[in-house]
Amino acid sequence: MNRWKTTRMGRILSVMTVIVLLLSAVSCAGKETVPETSEEQETNNGKVIVVYFSHTGNTEKLAEYIAERTSADSYRIEAKDPYTEEDTRYDADTRAYREQHDSDCRPEIAGKLPDLNGYDVIFLGYPIWHGEAPKIVYTFLDNVDVSGKRIIPFCTSASSPVGMSAKNLESLKPEADWDEGIRLEIESTAEDIEAWLNTLGLAD
Ligand SMILES: Cc1cc2nc3c(=O)[nH]c(=O)nc-3n(C[C@H](O)[C@H](O)[C@H](O)COP(=O)(O)O)c2cc1C
Fold this sequence. Notes:
By secondary structure, this protein is of the alpha/beta class. It has two domains: 1-34; 45-200, 3-Layer(aba) Sandwich (Rossmann fold). It is 40% helix and 13% strand. It contains seven helices and six strands. Strands 1, 2, 3, 4, 5 and 6 form a six-stranded parallel beta sheet that branches. α5 links the parallel β3 (121-127) and β4 (150-156). α3 (58-70) packs across α7. It is globular. Bound molecules: flavin mononucleotide. Flavin mononucleotide binds at residues 54-60, 88, 90, 96, 127-131, 156-160, 186.
């Protein structure tokens, strides 16, 4: 190989090296803005959980808005022995009425309870049943560790206010950090919920 050829080859190699270095620099710079793993992303979004009981879907709809707007996980409390229409007739002498008036009643929950480790904030949603949170919400609280976590109770109802319902839940777990309970209008839109979340400093 003569000298000219050697010099030309050297230049080509140098240019190629520079191109490779530039390409790898560009790709590294891109990576810095993306969370390292999807696991890390889940952890960041996983600080809030929306736990709710809903029999006819009103509370569930609002729970979904909250979960969407806070990038939260959610958990629906389901009864092992599901409530029928007859059970929940708005009347005395129904299963719901008897349960609500029995201070020791703790209806069983179907399936596994969520692992609350790693969550800092728990939205706790329920419908008002005979002036109070359904007893199955008490069952939930009896069986989870919520020490030091912020709990934000919210309810829906035909007309009753939140009343003592949230305070009575709080008395089961005074070791948590409870917000005042709030009654949300059944007709609340996603935007209404977002406005409320903004007052809590929790909207995304
Ligand atoms: C068994 C039962 C008891 C209820 N008690 C009350 C009540 O005391 N006050 C009230 O305003 N609404 C009462 N309601 C109406 C519900 O609170 C209301 O429809 C709520 O939005 C239902 O939520 P859900 O669709 O998430 O189950 C009762 C409903 C049921 C089924």
